[in-house]
Amino acid sequence: MRIVKNLTFQVIVAIICGIAVGAIWPSVGQQMKPIGETFINMIKMVIAPIIFLTIVLGIASMGSMKKVGRVGGKALLYFEIVTTAALIIGIIVANVVRPGDGLDPSKLKGGDVSQYVQSGQEMKWMDFFLHIVPSNMFEAFAKGDILQVLFFSI
Fold this sequence. Notes:
Elements: H1 7-24, H2 26-31, H3 33-62, H4 65-97, H5 110-122, H6 125-132, H7 137-143, H8 146-153
């Protein structure tokens, strides 16, 4: 009875039930799509405020700015290490799985790719750094722009 109240167990059961419904009754799965999208939107809705409050309360409870700097440096180092590890894992998996292998490029629509290439070329490094500073804190929260929320909270 205790395991039934365990959140991890409940999540695993829900995932298995979702996969079963999608595989056995796809039409029911399509009818339940609004429920899933609503759930995802609710999660997205609380991400920015949670990050903001966590950072602000964490900094406020530190006491001295020396501690804040030390913890910030450690957090930055951790972020860099984890990002590098994720990058290495991604490169290894891409080389093993080889996504797109056997894909015929002549069957692709050229218009779909060109808009992404253009937007990628338009963004310069300075634009990226200027984008981090929010012009309006409420807009950063409304758009869910986490980098701007982080900058504002610090």
